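Figure 3 (text version): structure tokens given as input.
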């Protein structure tokens, strides 16, 4: 009788649905990049995808009034010039949202759009989805970059900030809202990335969306060796090397 009961229990267990596969962080794996019908509004400005990324970012920064925020290791962030706010350019922000297949959103929907901006920029520069998968969440496209970096032909390579001095075309990514996002803890929490557009002595200039409700040029301090200096206002967890030509 006991043997029969064990067989019944084994049979029930065999018929039970299998749990979804989990990643190392306890999250369901992302899988392939979803297909999209969205197309960039214009051809890339140059034959170089990396240069196009930079030029597109600078162009959008100019469109939004050239807002600048300067970060320091010893003082709070300082806004040096105010730009056009999201509610004054809702349709342009709607263009960014369409790049991540969210056509119903705009600058009036009060949803963070910085990842949509980065996705719009990289896709508009001509980078195919096989090399970069647009997303409305920074830490999700970074997670895909980490996975893709293990394969041949990867062009976005995430590094710890201490291992990579930022260069023009790279991405600087930080956790946000105390999410704890890190390269060894890709928890799909809140984050933010900017595209490096210029390197000056002791400064990295990078452009991102939804910084102070605008497309903003952020100025980050560098140490004497060209590496990012830690700043509490923007806890950077990775510098993403851009190997695009």
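Below: residues designed for each position.
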């Amino acid at each position: 009788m006991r043997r029969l009961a064990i067989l019944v229990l084994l049979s029930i267990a065999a018929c039970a649905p299998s749990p979804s596969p989990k990643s190392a962080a306890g999250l369901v794996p992302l899988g392939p990049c979803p297909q999209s019908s969205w197309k960039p509004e214009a051809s890339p400005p140059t034959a170089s995808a990396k240069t196009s990324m930079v030029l597109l970012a600078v162009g959008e920064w100019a469109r939004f009034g050239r807002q600048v925020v300067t970060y320091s290791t010893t003082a709070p962030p300082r806004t040096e010039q105010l730009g056009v706010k999201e509610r004054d350019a809702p349709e342009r922000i709607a263009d960014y949202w369409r790049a991540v297949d969210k056509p119903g959103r705009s600058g009036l929907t009060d949803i963070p759009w910085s990842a949509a901006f980065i996705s719009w920029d990289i896709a508009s520069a001509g980078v195919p989805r096989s090399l970069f998968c647009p997303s409305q969440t920074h830490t999700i496209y970074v997670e895909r970059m980490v996975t893709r970096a293990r394969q041949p032909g990867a062009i976005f390579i995430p590094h710890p900030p201490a291992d990579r001095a930022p260069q023009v075309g790279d991405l600087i990514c930080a956790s946000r809202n105390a999410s704890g996002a890190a390269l060894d803890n890709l928890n799909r929490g809140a984050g933010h990335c900017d595209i490096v557009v210029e390197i000056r002595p002791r400064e990295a200039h990078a452009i991102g969306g939804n910084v102070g409700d605008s497309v903003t040029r952020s100025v980050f301090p560098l140490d004497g060796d060209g590496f990012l200096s830690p700043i509490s206002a923007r806890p950077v967890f990775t510098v993403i090397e851009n190997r695009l030509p």
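The helical segments are 2-15, 49-63, 90-98, 114-124, 138-148.
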